Amino acid sequence: MQLERLPFCAIRPKKGNEGLVFANQPVTHTMILLLALLLICDGLGTAHCSAAPGNSTDMLQLLDFKRAITNDPRQALSSWNASVPHCKWEGVKCSLKDPGRVIALNLAKRGLSGLIFPSLGNLTFLETLDLSTNSFTGELPPLDNLHRLQHLLVSENSLKGIIPDTLANCSNLQTLDLSFNLLIGEIPLNIGFLSSLSELQLAKNNLTGTIPPSLKNISQLEVINLADNQLMGSIPNEIGQFPDLTALLLGGNILSGRIPATLFNQSYLQILDVGINMIGNTLPCNFGDTLPSLTWLALDYNKFDGHIPASLGNISGLSTLELSSNKLTGQVPSSLGRLGMLNYLNLQKNKLEAKDIQSWEFIDALSNCTSLQVLALGQNQLQGAIPSSIGKLSSKLQVLGLDRNDLSGTVPTNMGNLNGLTVLDLRRNKLNGSIEGWVGKLKNLAVLALDENNFTGPIPNSIGNLTKLIKIYLANNKFEGPIPSSMGNCSMLIRLNLSYNNLQGNIPREIFHTGSTLTGCALSYNNLQGTIPTEFSNLRQLVELHLSSNKLSGEIPSALGECQELQIIQMDQNILTGGIPESLSNLKSLLVLNFSHNSLSGSIPTSLSDLKYLNKLDLSYNHIHGEVPRNGVFENVTAVSLNGNSGLCGGAADLCMPPCFTISQRRKRMYYLVRVLIPLVGFTSLVLLIYFVLLESKTPRRTYLLLLSFGKHFPRVTYRDLAQATQSFFESNLVGRGSYGSVYRGKLTQAKIQVSFHLS
Q1: What is the 3-state secondary structure (H, E, C) of 599-653?
Q2: Phi/psi class of residue 387: alpha, beta or left (left: φ > 0; alpha: ψ in -120 to 50)?
Q3: How far from chain centre, in Å, is Cα 429?
């Protein structure tokens, strides 16, 4: 016989290698099993394999929820349609006892956006709702009908508004996680009605008010996380009355007062974080004996004073001890060396002391902490030399901070044994001597901070072995010699500060290789020479460039305009020549430009006025000339310094520059006309002069002498000469008559001179 096709609910594959439940059974047994299943589905009682009455209700509520989703980048809800039974939709789990009723909706980490539609509040069989790590917005909808809800997880979204009071109706709630949202307002007072709650997570919101004392009614609480809100007031005494409490996180609020004494009875407490508050008082000396199960203790950024309790060394499972930024005094107890599980110890920013061998013994004791990865002792009152036992610390140590103390002497060479270090911070001490014997051995270093000490000698070439270096701070020491070109091996370098030393030689081009990620380069206040390498143009991520107070010469590379992330350029007090490159106008993010005290020439590029973020421009004491631009940064006289450039003129009136010489169009035409006429007239005069000279050279010598003598002596003539000259006083030669006689003209034949004479 041919069997009818079973409905989908009658055959369920079994996990593992067994396949379907009846796959390997004998035929007879299989037929009997199929018959039994058919009877259950179709023949007996009122049971049905088709949709139960409640099924369509839950499906419709889910579809309403889907319609409110505005973005589903991973197509998580693509199966949510009528062609697929809703119990098989992604993230949906239905009840076996009540077929078709949704008991769990898990859509965590699906990248969903939109509102959480109130229809979810009608899934009355729902036990778990997990929408965490998405991008839901809006307010948390009313869920007061979900009396069976046990786990509500909507953390890491962008939910706003207040925590609804109606959540108190979810009386079976065991886990409430609303952390990492934008919720405001106070924690509801009726939260104490959630008597089954074991985990309360409200961290990273903007909650205000106080910690409600009604929490004491939730006797089963194991985790309370209210960190990083704006809660005020004191920690209520009731918070120490939870017998099963394992984690209490209240850090990052505005809490004050002291840690309640009742809290020191929590023998199961593993995590205690009250850091970044205003809590104070002296820590009890038996602190470590009353909280023996602690693995994490964070009291940082508070007002605790007094000594560090030696009893902390009795908490054998303690892995994290964070006591930084308090007012703790005295010595670091050597008992901390008994913490075999300790991997993080931060005691910086206190008033802890170490002056002699005995007070430095804790370093030797900490060598027993073989899991120690972070040791931060900076900004205390530690004095004297760093003990040689520093080299015996855990090989797993990654961060060592001794900065801002009063340390002196040389660094022990066995510091090089700590080859697991990624961060070494010794800045702002009085350490001296060479670093050559140990620094090149720390091949895993990412950050080397030795600035503001008295280190001497050259920067060793072995620093090029530290190929994982990201930041190098060696400023304010007494290093000398050249900058090692081996630094070019540090291809991951982001920050380089070698300022305020006595370094000489050229700037090595190898450091500025193609693909460099350098964002800050400070080489100021040294004795560096030569030109500025054009390879700076490879630093496409460079933000700050400081080359002040050296002996750099040559021109400013125009290729610098390719470093388009630059915000600060300081090149003052060098011997730079040439003009200001026009290419600097490409630096659209530029804030500060200082070329003062050089020998620059040329004019100020008007394109600098297009740099809208430029708020400090210093070009003083150069040889720049021409008109000062009037726009952009040049409009703000407090942002511009141009002193010591005698050739500048114009600009904003407050700059007090002399006016630029300007002429009208008519004067300009006259100017050019004069420029043309002067050489033309000169040339013409020269030609005429030559002509007359040549003409004069052709006049007879005798005539010239006669004319010359005529000008000096009048010739003697007789009456006969006069009669002959006037043709015997002929009337035609008569010029005129007067009362004194007559005037005749005539020509004396001796020199052929025509004369007039008076005859009385």
Answers
A1: CCCCCCCHHHHHCCCCCEEECCCCCCEEECCCCHHHHCHHHEECCCCCEEECCCH
A2: beta
A3: 27
Residue 249, helix vs strand vs coil: strand
Cβ 551 vs Cβ 528: under 8 Å: yes
Q: Which amino acid is at 225?
A: N
Round to whole Å and give the CA distance between 500 and 524: 6
Provide the CATH number for the domain formed by 55-282 in this structure.
3.80.10.10
Kindly report whether the global pTM for this prediction surpasses the value 0.90. Answer: no
Q: What would the DSSP string read from start to end of 318-350?
A: --EEE--SSEEEEPPPGGGGG-TT--EEE--SS
CB 561 within 8 A of CB 589: no
For 64-120, write each residue's pLDDT tens digit.
999 999 999 999 999 999 899 999 999 999 999 999 999 999 999 999 999 999 999
Per-domain residue ranges of the chain: 8-43, 55-282, 668-698, 705-759
Split at pLDDT 50, 70, 90, the class of 723 is: confident
Nearest to 375 by CA among 395, 335, 345: 345
Q: How far apart are CA 104 and CA 101, in angstroms?
A: 9
Note whether 671 and 650 are within 8 A (CB): no
- Rg (C-alpha) for the chain, rounded Å, is 50
**C-alpha pair distances (Å), 685 with each of 675, 681, 693, 696:** 16, 6, 12, 16
Using the structure block, give the residue that is written with the tokens 């002792």. Answer: 377
φ, ψ (nearest 5 deg) of residue 661: -70, 120
| Bridge partners, 425 (sequence order) | 401, 449
Phi then psi for 84, rounded to 5 degrees? Answer: -120, 130
Instruction: Report the top-level CATH class of 705-759.
Output: alpha beta
SS3 539: coil
